[in-house]
Amino acid sequence: MIPEQVLKKVTGLAVAILLLTAVHHVYGAVIYHSHWRLHTVFVALPAMLVLWQLHRMLLQRDRLWVRRIYMMLIWIIPVLLIGLYEGVYNHLLKDILYYAGISPEAFDRMFPPPLYEKPNDLLFEVTGVLQAVLYFPLQFVLLSRIKRWKIA
Fold it and tell me: What is the pTM of this model?
């Protein structure tokens, strides 16, 4: 069983990551004229709705199968795909390496254009890094509680 306050914290952080990534990618699609970035919105928003419904189901009656689906959804989309890959790698690491002065060749190998943009828009980079900022507390809560939740 997931304690209610922990469930609310996990769901809140996950929903925040999903909303933030939707805003971030819509903004990126507009400023970089790259409509392909909008695909993330079509993953993030439905995932958020499913996650919210699973959250409500767990509050009403904690069932093992619901808990498993909830945890899989949290781990796959907000944690791995968005938090770790999009937030930590695509933005936090990219910005650190860029401002640390990595060679342009190495930078382009790690972050090949046109898929990646060099940091040139403050709002885009801040919203990207914020995905990583939200990832760390979410990952901490999940890792510190996983054995107690008995999802296996």
Answer: 0.92
